[in-house]
Design brief:
150 residues, 11% strand, elongated, binds FE2/S2 (inorganic) cluster
Length: 150
């Protein structure tokens, strides 16, 4: 019978295998790990490093360069509001200010800026978890957050 650590290692190894243990796929691998676990635990860096034949420092360096990757699980839902040019032109900065002033009642949220979610045609864009939100407004953001709680 496998220990919890061995089972976790097996999941990480399977993710690396799905990318042919290709070091060029490191960012995709980190996204997949974070998608599975909600963050990329420190212990997984060694497993990834061994699978890709890279050093742990190389994995950590890549991971720490991109603010999207988290070593710890977020304490609250993360609301990403795009600050790219198209979204700024459609009121994203005002949306971020309004949302910060009217967060969910009693619910902490983390608001993070992002710079283009690839949804410019539906600006202002936002993302909560895996949910991409176009023509975002405060009510839609709050609605998606409420749905996450269910
Ligand atoms: S600029 Fe916001 S989605 Fe592209």
């Amino acid at each position: 019978m496998k220990s919890a650590g061995e089972a976790a290692d097996h999941i990480i190894s399977a993710i690396c295998d799905a990318h042919d243990n290709n070091p060029a796929a490191l960012i995709e691998i980190l996204h997949d790990v974070q998608g599975q676990k909600g963050h990329v635990p420190d212990g997984d860096l060694v497993v990834i490093a061994m699978a890709l034949n890279l050093s742990r420092a190389e994995i950590f360096g890549t991971m720490s360069f991109y603010p999207d990757f988290h070593a710890q699980p977020p304490e609250a839902p993360v609301v990403k509001i795009c600050r790219g040019e198209a979204c700024q032109a459609m009121g994203a900065l005002e949306l971020a200010d309004k949302f910060a002033a009217a967060p969910m009642a009693g619910e902490p949220v983390e608001v993070e800026p992002v710079y283009c979610l690839g949804n410019c045609a539906l600006a202002p864009a936002a993302m909560i978890g895996d949910t991409l939100i176009g023509r975002a407004d405060v009510a839609r953001l709050q609605s998606v957050l409420a749905d996450l709680k269910k």
